[in-house]
Queue: 2 jobs
Job 1
Amino acid sequence: MLPQGIRREKQAHGLAAQR
């Protein structure tokens, strides 16, 4: 897993969790 992929997944999860 690359750092960029993890960063993108973390941001996506935060947005989905906040919604």
Job 2
Amino acid sequence: MMLLENNISLGFNSFVEFQGYLCGIIRVCFTRKYQGQYNS
């Protein structure tokens, strides 16, 4: 039971890290796109 809970928490942590990584990529893409439109 303890092993199962550890696996669930580990998966949740990796999912949160992946979500933060994805948000960072999207934020960079949006900023570059916005700056590109603003410059041109």
